[in-house]
Amino acid sequence: xxxxxxxxxxxxxxxxxxxxxxxxxxxxxxxxxxxxxxxxxxxxxxxxxxxxxxxxxxxxxxxxxxxxxxxxxxxxxxxxxxxxxxxxxxxxxxxxxxxxxxxxxxxxxxxxxxxxxxxxxxxxxxxxxxxxxxxxxxxxxxxxxxxxxxxxxxxxxxxxxxxxxxxxxxxxxxxxxxxxxxxxxxxxxxxxxxxxxxxxxxxxxxxxxxxxxxxxxxxxxxxxxxxxxxxxxxxxxxxxxxxxxxxxxxxxxxxxxxxxxxxxxxxxxxxxxxxxxxxxxxxxxxxxxxxxxxxxxxxxxxxxxxxxxxxxxxxxxxxxxxxxxxxxxxxxxxxxxxxxxxxxxxxxxxxxxxxxxxxxxxxxxxxxxxxxxxxxxxxxxxxxxxxxxxxxxxxxxxxxxx
Length: 402
Hints:
This protein folds into two domains: 138 residues, Aspartate Aminotransferase, domain 1 (Alpha-Beta Complex), CATH 3.90.1150; 255 residues, 3-Layer(aba) Sandwich (Aspartate Aminotransferase, domain 2). Helices cover 41% and strands 14% of the residues. It contains eleven helices and 13 strands. Strand 5, helix 6 and strand 6 form a beta-alpha-beta unit.
């Protein structure tokens, strides 16, 4: 019998999803799979009701302005959301501050604003433990700084940034603060008002326990965002231009109602289990993984000497072995799925010095991993390290006898 896959790629997408998410997605689409709000019949109104109730529910979840839940807008994923908000806030001559921890979903839109639209950008480095010093953000401020955009939790290192402190600096300077919560929403409590966040960008398919193809923005009511797209809304069709009211200001075409259903059920699961409880359990497993790797000769770990203010995402390498080869051997010989390479975050690997070896091996633990699976991962890496040691010994012997 084939062994079950051991999945440690939850930073890419959480899998599997809770059973209630699968059930509700299926049930909702079978019974309410119509276009919401485009017509006046009951079924369309009921579908639209779930959409509106989810806006309110997720606005509360993020600690946004509950009297402005129409500013919780849905899109495809966090990359789609960031491609709306960055050009929606930045114009020619504006200065953007971001960091070396960012995913390409921030790096590339910011770079396009610089190259194509005359903006300026500063990428702030992280320290040896994987954290950005809030004072470095303050020092990077200029008179024309318009936007600070930060990755709340690194998808490579797992470090969680001091968002409240950075947000306070932005608030004092009158600079809009956007937080990419792709890795933290559903894991780390987020309160936009308490943490001085102006815009949250989120995705549904990770710790929010939803499906792929759903994400969006939660925007405080004092933030003005330019429209950068246009299209159908199903509302006031005679109007020749895209509507300026929220949510339609930043929503286009038919919404992903299966994704909406998945997020609703995901919220139910998080309410039942508690995000703090889920995170605590994942971090116990992450500590077990790190402790096991530290006992392996040749294992190299990055920015996890302490797992305080950390996600259950661990980056590692083995001396003398290409990370891509490690991933293949884990998959083929141990049936363990990891993510190798640059993880769509090249500046992280540039600063770490792992770019020449094509990145590293990322283990990202999720809500449904077990101690037995963590131990299997430790054994797998130990086996590969032993193989590498024996290979190096044979190579040295061959050179000595040449």
